Amino acid sequence: MAADVAVLRHLRGIFQYSDPRLGVKLGPSLEPALNLRLGVNIDHVATLRQARGGHEPEPVAAALLAQSAGADGITVHLRGDRRHIQDRDLRVLKEVLAIPLNVECAATTEAMEVIIPCKPSWVTLVPENREELTTQGGLDAVFLQGMLKPVVRELRSAGIHVSLFVDPVLDQVKMAAKLEADAVELNTGAYSDLPMDSDPSFELARLRDAARLASRLGLRVLAGHGLNLQNVGPVAGIPEIEELNIGHSLIGRAVLVGLAGSVTEMLTAMRGARS
Ligand code: PXP
Fold first, then answer.
1. With bands split at pLDDT 50, 70 and 90, how would you rate the model's confidence at 111?
2. DSSP 34
3. Known catalytic residue at 131
4. What's the pLDDT score for residue 13?
5. Which domain holds residue 235?
6. How far is CA 271 from CA 10, 69, 266, in A?
């Protein structure tokens, strides 16, 4: 999709102005490789774009910057209401990314019809309801097993790896294995939502036990929801977890660490016009 004019225009803008002093690090990371991958969720770049209904900020450009900074994968949630990521984003991301694309979605026929032809590396099945601000809780794989079974099978037979986003509950993990998912993504929401001064040991024990069981059952183990710089450490320390999916805190922080550079660029452009 080299002809995607919006992407090209936006990338040209970023690379024209990018300067090491602005904190934009391009090129592969020089840090030693971690055995814990980072999947960067770029939904909220699209949220900002949709607020104006135009082309900016371009989520594909954000994905490429995350890739350049060392992200191991890009995650997007194609919601039924299309409140942020659009069908076109999937197609362009699949075209330009060198790292795996993971698409979160509800297990609906409508989502499958859009996603399967696009062939992302992974699909993560999540619960979805229209009123929620973000994904609320994990998928009840035990209750929904009859509905999930053909969807998991359809995705896997299309060559797409399947992950189920579940709460850290042993029966849910067992059901993911029974449904022949490739992975579980453990919902860290209950841990992340704990008040700052409360004891996290109960929620961490649930995550640890679920991760251990999933790994023993041959599932790959991912985790995410609500993770940020302050709370990521204990989850990153669980050895069975291979990948963390993080979105809101990364994009929120990018706005703050990037704003000074953005203001500098604008002042430079304004000065240029008067010189
Ligand atoms: N994992 C899943 C399944 C999600 O639905 C989300 C939110 O879209 C995330 C991870 C990332 O959560 P957050 O944006 O809170 O980092």
1. very high
2. P
3. no
4. 59
5. 2-274
6. 22, 30, 9
If one counts the domains in the chain, the total is 1
Model pTM score: 0.90
Residue carrying structure tokens 């060392």: 70
Q: What percent of the chain has pLDDT over 90?
A: 84
Instruction: Decide: 122 in ligand 1 pocket, CB within 6 A.
Output: no
Q: What is the CATH number of the domain that holds 270?
A: 3.20.20.70
10: annotated active-site residue: no
CA 205 – CA 186 distance, rounded (Å): 12
> Residue 27 pLDDT > 50, yes or no?
no
**Cβ–Cβ < 8 Å for 122, 162:** yes
Residues 250, 225 contacting (CB under 8 angstroms): no
Cβ 148 vs Cβ 124: under 8 Å: no
For the cut 50, the answer to whether the pLDDT of residue 93 exceeds it is yes
| CA 135 – CA 154 distance, rounded (Å) | 23
Residue 188 CB burial class (10 angstroms; 0-12, 13-18, ≥19): buried
Active site residue 55: no
Q: Is 124 in the pocket of ligand 1 (CB under 6 A)?
A: yes
Kindly tell me if the per-residue pLDDT of 25 is higher than 50: no
What is the band of 170 on the pLDDT scale with cuts at 50, 70, 90? very high
By alpha-carbon position, which residue is closest to atom 5 of ligand 1? 135
Q: Quick check: CB of 126 below 6 Å from ligand 1?
A: yes
Read off the tokens for 258.
């990037």
For 236, residues 6+ apart whose C-beta sits below 8 A from its C-beta are 36, 244
Q: How far is the CA of 53 from the centre of ligand 1 (A)?
A: 23
